[in-house]
Amino acid sequence: MGFYLNGRDELRKSINGALSKVQGLNATEHLIDAIDGTDNFDFLLSGVPNIVGIQDPIPYLPDYHAESDTLDRVNQREEKMTLAAASAILWAFAENPERLRRQSRAEIEKLIKDTKLDEQMKPFGQWENFVQHKRGVSE
Predict the structure, then answer these.
(1) According to the model, what pLDDT value does residue 104 have?
(2) φ, ψ (nearest 5 deg) of residue 54
């Protein structure tokens, strides 16, 4: 459906440009939100630009990381669309002469506060680890 930009609105233009080259994806819902609980989280804390796909939760969540999450249940059409979107974005980022830059500790802290990511981090002890420089960029 689109991507969470993880607080990095500067990614929006590149993503839209990349996806405009692939017809029929309809992945246009790009939210500025930063989210916890995904494999991208430590990249975000380290200042690395990253995105997370937004899926329709109704068919996605019941099988997410469950025994029922088997290859025969994969929606082949959705899988091909995801592959096309990821390939287009990866190509566009790789070919961009203006490389996406890594954020500093101060910028990451601002991003976390601005997106209220700290409220997601606190219940899991992640905020305390970040504040104590046990996670993320230390500078």
Answers:
(1) 95
(2) -100, 115
- Tens-place pLDDT, residues 27-59: 889 999 999 988 889 999 999 999 998 888 787
DSSP output for 31-85: E----SSSTTHHHHHTT----EEE--HHHHGGGTTSTT--GGGS-HHHHHHHHHH
* Phi, psi of 108, rounded to the nearest 5 degrees: -65, -45
State whether residue 3 is helix, strand or coil. strand
Structural domain includes residue 139: no
Number of compact structural domains in the chain: 1
Asked if residue 124 belongs to a domain, the reply is yes
- Starting at the edge strand found earlier in the chain, the sheet holding 29-31 runs 29-31, 2-4, 52-54
Residue 136 inside a domain? The answer is no
